[in-house]
Design brief:
D-amino Acid Aminotransferase, Chain A, domain 1, D-amino Acid Aminotransferase, Chain A, domain 2, 9-stranded mixed β-sheet, EC 2.6.1.42, Aminotransferase-like, L-valine-2-oxoglutarate transaminase activity, Class-IV_PLP-Dep_Aminotrnsfr, BCAT-like_C
Length: about 290
């Protein structure tokens, strides 16, 4: 099946999709992105992703390329053309094409917009969740505005590569105080020795995860105790359970941290339950 991408106003074959060499995203990482999970051909956690997109664009003073209704149509068309039932849709917005200069173009240029969509194997994802994954720790070396979903992801890419080379699926950044901030592409969670769910608060230098926010609703409905409190790698290693959240991983149990088993080294019951409850809610509310 041929794949299709949306590039600046039109759909083209994926293999023919290009942007100009002086697009500021390509030259300066001057842009933002969002990723929606797709359930049954629909956008999961749609409003949360749109809200974060507008906030990221406004923080970088990039013009909104179109309204939310029009953008929703583009995303849905990308999903339809690529015949995605379960998967991911990716959106990238940059400041646009202009002669290379660090300062913003004057006068302003239209922002560039790219959308792609791809299928994922949910059955395979469930098998991986049943096995759980490993994480490794890396020093926090990112910029001071990780709350913006910027396309400047080189530290994240290097962290992911470090994880892959050590047989892990994710890397957790650790700040100068020895506290976990978040993963390279996910939020980090534990269930501590007292049975409390813990994750870093969003006042810290972390991304305001949309899957994270939806899971908070799930946790409240389930009546589970939760604490937005940071933790160390040692605390995570001695926790009852650990897991990560994100549009790509959903809720994924973690069974090893820096080579040390978490609990008995298998996915815990709470993380497994939360994955099921999150998927049920996301699927029911997808648009």
């Amino acid at each position: 099946m041929s794949r299709f991408a949306y590039v600046n106003g039109r759909f083209v074959r994926h293999g023919d999709a290009v942007v100009h060499i002086e697009d500021r995203g390509y030259q300066l990482a001057d842009g933002v992105y969002e990723v929606w999970a797709i359930f049954d051909g629909k956008l999961a956690d749609a409003e949360g992703h749109f809200a974060r997109l507008w906030r990221s664009l406004d923080s970088l003073r990039i013009a909104h390329p179109m309204g939310q209704a029009a953008l929703t149509c583009v995303l849905r068309e990308a999903i339809r053309r690529n015949m995605v039932r379960d998967g991911l849709v990716y959106l990238q917005v940059t400041r646009g094409v202009a002669r290379r200069d660090h300062a913003f173009p004057n006068p302003a240029v239209p922002p560039s917009v790219v959308v792609t969509a791809k299928s994922t194997d949910r059955a395979l994802a469930e098998r991986k969740a049943e096995q759980g994954g490993a994480v490794v720790s890396v020093p926090e070396n990112r910029w001071g505005r990780c709350d913006i979903k910027s396309i400047g992801l080189l530290p994240n890419a290097l962290a992911k590569q470090a994880a892959r080379e050590r047989g892990a699926i994710e890397a957790w950044f650790v700040d100068d105080l020895g506290l976990v901030t978040e993963g390279a592409s996910s939020n980090a969670w534990i269930i501590d020795a007292e049975g409390h769910l813990r994750t870093r608060d969003t006042n810290a230098n972390i991304l305001r995860g949309v899957t994270r926010s939806t899971l908070f609703e799930v946790i409240r409905d389930a009546g589970l105790p939760i604490n937005e409190k940071p933790f160390t790698i040692a605390e995570a290693q001695s926790a009852r359970e650990a897991f990560i959240t994100g549009a790509g991983t959903l809720v994924l149990p973690i069974v090893s941290i820096d080579g040390t088993k978490v609990g008995d080294g298998s996915p815990g019951p709470v993380a497994t339950r939360l994955r099921r409850l999150y998927i049920e809610r996301a699927r029911a509310k997808a648009i």
